[in-house]
UniProtKB/TrEMBL annotation:
Keyword match Signal: yes
Protein name: Molybdate ABC transporter substrate-binding protein
Oligomeric and partner information: The complex is composed of two ATP-binding proteins (ModC), two transmembrane proteins (ModB) and a solute-binding protein (ModA).
Source species, domain of life: Bacteria
Species, as recorded: Neisseria shayeganii
Record-linked Pfam families: SBP_bac_11
UniProt gene name: modA
Gene Ontology molecular functions: metal ion binding; molybdate ion binding; tungstate binding
Keywords for this protein: Metal-binding, Molybdenum, Signal
Keyword Cell inner membrane in annotation: no
Family: Belongs to the bacterial solute-binding protein ModA family.
């Protein structure tokens, strides 16, 4: 009978020890990285069972604002260099840890069963195209890329009445997949997730390539673990997952 309290105390001590060893790692990633990072996080947790990776995905602009407002973030991955530049300028990330890890392509898509064909940006001017999904250029990289391409083609002002502004690239993808718009701008990797619902009609030429940077947050509570996760993303194992989802090397 006297042994029970001792055993209970040892069990309690073990639980406390395990809880102290457990580590939460918050990773904020651009919406277009969601599926790839979910798989990378799962693989990382299998290799490091003491770590619980909490993945937060949204438009890069929204992620930056969360970071600047003090949200607990350990690693950030944006869909453009401009957003990361702003994070560095605000000292929100460790500039030394910054790495460009993948590239992507901007594409124009239409609903799979649509009779509308838009093999070029000029075709968006046609009456058959009345609604175009384009993420907010003020805060979402894919929207900035699309607006820059349309402005270079001299089309943005004329097409503005047709544009349906979305919160992020996945919202644009969903709008096109559901047939709520006639066309939309997304990344090639996003379009590849729904081949049965959308089709790519054109790859949009850009002056600035679509490249993704990743970095450790300045306010990370566990910079060693954050850097280890970042290194895993850059590792052959992480690269294999990114390649699987269509991302190319920088």
């Amino acid at each position: 009978m006297k042994r029970l309290p001792r055993i209970t105390a040892l069990a309690a001590l073990l639980l406390v020890t395990l809880s102290l060893q457990a580590k939460d790692l918050t990773v904020s990633a651009a919406s277009s990285l969601k599926d790839a990072f979910q798989e990378i996080a799962a693989q990382y947790e299998r290799l490091h069972p003491e770590v619980d990776v909490k993945l937060n995905t949204a438009g890069s602009g929204a992620l930056l604002q969360q970071l600047l407002q003090g949200a607990p973030v350990d690693v950030v991955a944006f869909a453009d260099q401009k957003t990361m530049d702003m994070a560095v300028e605000k000292n929100a990330v460790d500039g030394v840890s910054r790495r460009t890890f993948v590239r992507n392509d901007l594409v124009l898509i239409v609903p799979k069963n649509s009779h509308t064909s838009a093999p070029s940006l000029q075709d968006l001017n046609r009456p058959a195209v009345s609604r175009i999904a384009l993420s907010n250029p003020e805060s979402v990289p894919v929207g900035r890329y699309a607006r820059a391409a349309l402005e270079k083609a001299g089309l943005f002002a004329a097409l503005r009445p047709k544009i349906i502004t979305t919160q992020n690239v996945r919202h644009s993808l969903d709008y096109v997949a559901r047939g709520e718009v006639d066309a939309g701008f997304v990344y090639r990797t996003d379009a590849a997730l729904m081949p049965e619902k959308v089709r790519v009609t054109a790859t949009v030429a850009l002056d600035t390539p679509v490249s993704y940077p990743i970095a450790v947050s300045t306010d990370s509570r566990n910079k060693v673990e954050a850097q280890r996760f970042l290194n895993f993303v850059l590792s052959p194992q992480g690269r294999q997952v990114l390649n699987k989802y269509g991302f190319s090397r920088p």
